[in-house]
Design brief:
Layout: E1 10-11, E2 19-23, H1 24-41, E3 44-45, H2 55-61, E4 69-71, H3 74-82, E5 87-93, H4 99-108, E6 111-116, H5 119-128, E7 136-141, H6 155-165, E8 170-176, H7 187-210, E9 217-220, H8 223-228, E10 237-238, H9 248-252, E11 263-273, E12 278-281, H10 285-288, E13 305-307, E14 313-322, E15 327-331, E16 347-351, H11 355-359, E17 364-368, E18 374-375, E19 377-380
Parallel strand pairs: 2-17, 3-10, 4-5, 5-6, 6-7, 7-8, 8-9, 9-10
Antiparallel strand pairs: 1-18, 2-11, 11-12, 11-16, 12-15, 13-14, 13-16, 14-15, 17-19
Length: 385
């Protein structure tokens, strides 16, 4: 898809650095890969918009301009609602003092659903929800011991939460997230995590239905499991987010390839420490984030892989260190590659470990296409909670 408001091409070499570069070709390919897979399987798709935080990206990944969509902050819900998105799931456990914002969105016309996993949340919702416009609620299920949620076989707690919600709010169903899929070491691990996620959500829904609750929604999702699930039996929708851009962490668990990564940070060479084998650039952890998620994988990518202006990775040149505004590039430890002779003022692109964390450091995407060293438009992004 081409942006209707394309601007005059701008050479990457002329941009102020550090800044965020988005390869639209790769992004569109990533979106097509997952949406086609889910369409073939006949399961609904509710993309997670927490990574892009941009209406321009959202419109390319959502099934329709009105959604459905998943968000991780109420700021995201409000921003996307202001741009016409109506069907929204806020997929973080609700804090009672945020319910007023939820009610405001619903009163304004948003069909926003919230997530809970305990009785205290349920009581707060039941006390504050307007029975003439009941807040839809999903019970979060802990499918793998990763973080939050009710155990899928804890019938007593599931039904207690559901019963408290009646009649002022509406139990819409269950939601789970296979967070431990990010620890997968093989394709078999990814497939097993996806099946464990599916089974947990379907079991919890079955228990609730047996107790008289309709439980229409059975929502699962993570980028790793969305790409490797063998069955969606009993599932009504899939959520995934980072797949739009991908990153080095996802490549490290075999969910994508390096050349699928659509996000990079443009940086400028500002100095050398030749005796140390270092190239110094102006993108530090403020531009890249401090995420070192690949350090626990088979290949440690430091703070990111260095690429040429057109996005081609350079032989074993990675960001080995990062201060607030300084990045240190060096040859990967143990590699035989030679340090390139890059003049001060040269510009490079750095592929990130974690697209969500890196994008969060920036206010806009400078959009290019694969193999190009110039941008054709700029898309804004927002932040906050």
């Amino acid at each position: 898809m081409t942006d209707p408001a394309e601007t005059t091409p701008v050479a990457l070499s002329t941009l102020q650095t550090p800044c965020l570069i988005l390869d639209e070709t790769r992004m569109n390919r990533n979106i097509a890969r997952l949406t086609e897979r889910l369409a073939t399987a006949g399961v609904g798709f509710r993309p997670h918009l927490k990574t892009p935080k941009s209406i321009d990206v959202a419109r390319r990944v959502m099934p329709r301009p009105t959604g459905p969509a998943t968000v991780s902050t109420l700021r995201e819900a409000e921003q996307f609602f202001d741009h016409g998105v109506r069907d929204i799931t806020y997929a973080v456990g609700i804090a009672p003092d945020k319910l007023a914002r939820v009610q405001k969105l619903r009163a304004d016309g948003a069909n926003i659903t919230i997530v809970i996993d305990n009785i205290d949340q349920a009581r707060a919702i039941a006390a504050l929800s307007d029975p003439t416009n009941p807040i839809p609620v999903l019970i979060e299920i802990d499918c793998d011991g990763h973080r939050s949620g009710v155990k899928p076989d804890d019938a007593a707690l599931l039904c207690a939460i559901a019963d408290i919600l009646v009649p002022n709010s509406h139990l819409a169903g269950v939601l789970t997230h296979a967070g431990e899929s990010y620890s997968a070491k093989s394709i078999a691990d990814l497939e097993a995590a996806a099946e464990q996620e599916r089974v947990a959500a379907v079991l919890a829904a079955t228990i609730l239905r047996g107790a008289g609750h309709a439980c229409e929604v059975v929502s699962v999702g993570s980028s790793p499991t969305a790409h490797f699930a063998k069955s969606y039996d009993g599932v009504t929708e899939v959520r995934a987010g980072v797949f739009v851009f991908f990153d080095l962490f996802q490549a490290g668990i075999n969910v994508c390839r390096i050349d699928d990564i659509a996000l990079s940070v443009l940086t400028t060479v500002i100095g050398h420490q030749r005796e140390k084998g270092w190239i110094i650039v102006d993108a530090g952890w403020m531009a890249m984030s401090r995420d070192r998620g690949t350090a626990g994988q088979a290949v440690d990518q430091g703070y990111g892989i260095a690429c040429t202006l057109d996005g081609t990775p350079m032989d074993d040149l990675i960001m080995v260190g990062a201060n607030q505004e300084h990045g240190i590039l060096a040859i990967r430890p143990g590699a035989d590659a030679r340090l390139p002779d890059l003049a001060v003022g040269s510009k490079l692109r750095i592929l990130p470990n974690h697209a969500c964390a890196t994008a969060a450091q920036h206010g806009a995407y400078h959009v290019c296409r694969s193999g190009e060293d110039f941008t054709h438009t700029t898309w804004s992004r927002f932040a906050g909670w």
